[in-house]
Design brief:
Layout lengths: L16 E4 L4 H12 L5 E4 L10 H6 L7 E4 L2 E4 L1 H12 L11 H32 L5 H17 L14 H10 L13 H11 L4 H4 L1 H7 L3
Helix pairs in contact: 1-3, 1-6, 4-5, 4-6, 5-7
Length: about 220
């Protein structure tokens, strides 16, 4: 029987597989992108704390042994940002605004996705991870670096726009919001950055936020 064919002979649309871990901000971002773009995915959970990403079976899929990982037929991709870009570019359809096809709008998304990786994700994880996983107290220097990133984002939203690139939600917002959500576990407040705080509340009001970020809040509960 040919690939994707059912027993009735009707060809079915192939559903990609997305490997995630619930606490991982990048994995949550990839899942949220699939939800936002109404892209069906088959979720497979990899428990990082149990070392499931280091098994020989998963290493054959992704030799870097990281999540998220996307498998689309015989094509495998990892790292959240290219996964998000790939999914919307291939299957986004009416939701292509999430990663615009217009070259200039896409360039703005790419610029902010790079800022997210090099500044938002970097500073948030450097501030929160030692507290979450090593029981260390907050590091003032790491917090100061994170604050600079938050100040930049607050200025970016200062014009009254709803989202980071304008009035349309994009993968930039999704990636940044899942990263910033890590600060919630320790009850970090963003009152100093009112535009950023309003944007974050808007992101949390998305209909799929609770489902895709369940792993974050399950981690938060026993703290």
């Amino acid at each position: 029987m040919g690939n994707g064919a059912s027993s009735s002979g009707v060809k079915r649309k192939r559903v990609p597989t997305l490997y995630i871990y619930g606490l991982s901000a990048p994995a949550r971002a990839a899942w949220m992108t699939a939800k936002a773009a109404e892209i069906p995915v088959r979720l497979k959970y990899i428990d990082l704390f149990k070392g499931e990403h280091k098994t020989p079976e998963f290493a054959k899929i992704n030799p870097d042994m990281t999540v998220p990982t996307l498998v689309d037929g015989d094509f495998t991709l990892w790292e959240s940002r290219p996964i998000m870009q790939y999914m919307v570019s291939k299957w986004g359809g009416k939701h292509s605004y999430l990663y615009p096809t217009d070259l200039q709008k896409r360039a703005i998304c790419d610029r902010l996705m790079n800022f997210d990786l090099g500044s938002v994700y970097k500073t948030v994880t450097e501030f929160t991870y030692p507290q979450l996983f090593q029981g260390k107290p907050p590091d003032p220097d790491k917090e100061a670096a994170m604050k600079k990133a938050f100040e930049y984002l607050n200025r970016n939203l200062d014009g009254g726009q709803r989202y980071m690139t304008g009035d349309d939600l994009t993968i930039v917002d999704i990636s940044m919001a899942t990263n910033i959500s890590l600060t919630e576990i320790k009850g970090y407040m963003m009152d100093k950055w009112p535009d950023l705080a309003m944007w974050y509340r808007r992101m949390k009001a998305l209909p799929y936020w609770a489902e895709c970020n369940k792993g974050l809040y399950e981690w938060k509960t026993p703290q």
